[in-house]
Design the sequence.
C-alpha cells in the first residue's frame, strides 16, 4: 500500500509522488482517474481495485514551477556522489562550503559541493586558492525538469519515463 504512485495534473504534467493508499482514495473520491495500472489488484471482501502506478487529477491545480530542494542528499545527487576535489566516488561524503562560512560563504547551490572527508579536512577553513585545490565542476542549481526531480523514482518505475520526460 506504500508503493509510490505518480500524480499527474489535469494537463498531464507530473505534480508529485504519493502512496498507493492515498492514490486509491483520490480515485474513489472522484478527484483523480487511473492512468496506468500495471501492478495488479487490491482485493477487499466486497470488491477489488486496480493498484495504480500513475493517476491523473480531474481538476487542474495551480502551483509554482517545482525546484529541487537544497538538501545534503540533493547536493550529493547533483554531484553524482563524487568528491568534487579528488573525483573519488563514495557513499560516505561530506558537504563542503567552497567559500567557508566564516569568510561569508553562503548556503547556496553555487557554494556547496560534495567532498570526501580527506579533501574536506585538507581544505579546512580556507579558500580554494589558499588551499591550492581545484573543483572538478562549477557548482550550479540542478535542472528543475520533472525527469531530474523525479529521477530517483523513475529508476525504480521505468513505466513512468514517458510521462515524466519533456516536462
Ligand atoms: Zn576527495
Sequence:
Amino acid at each position: 500500500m506504500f508503493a509510490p504512485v505518480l500524480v499527474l495534473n489535469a494537463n498531464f504534467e507530473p505534480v508529485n509522488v504519493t502512496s498507493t493508499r492515498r492514490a486509491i482514495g483520490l480515485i474513489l473520491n472522484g478527484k483523480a482517474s487511473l492512468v496506468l495500472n500495471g501492478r495488479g489488484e487490491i482485493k477487499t471482501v466486497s470488491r477489488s481495485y486496480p493498484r495504480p502506478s500513475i493517476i491523473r487529477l480531474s481538476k487542474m491545480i495551480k502551483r509554482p514551477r517545482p525546484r529541487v530542494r537544497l538538501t545534503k542528499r540533493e547536493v550529493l545527487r547533483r554531484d553524482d556522489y563524487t568528491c568534487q576535489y579528488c573525483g573519488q566516488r563514495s557513499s560516505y561524503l561530506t558537504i563542503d562550503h567552497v567559500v567557508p562560512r566564516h569568510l561569508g560563504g553562503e548556503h547556496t547551490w553555487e557554494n556547496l559541493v560534495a567532498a570526501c572527508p580527506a579533501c574536506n579536512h585538507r581544505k579546512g577553513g580556507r579558500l580554494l586558492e589558499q588551499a591550492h585545490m581545484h573543483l572538478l565542476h562549477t557548482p550550479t542549481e540542478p535542472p528543475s525538469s520533472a525527469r531530474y526531480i523525479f529521477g530517483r523514482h523513475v529508476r525504480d518505475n521505468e513505466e513512468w519515463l514517458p510521462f515524466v520526460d519533456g516536462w
Q: What stands out?
A: The chain has seven helices and eight strands. Residues 83, 85-86, 88, 115-116, 118-119 surround zinc ion (CB under 6 Å).
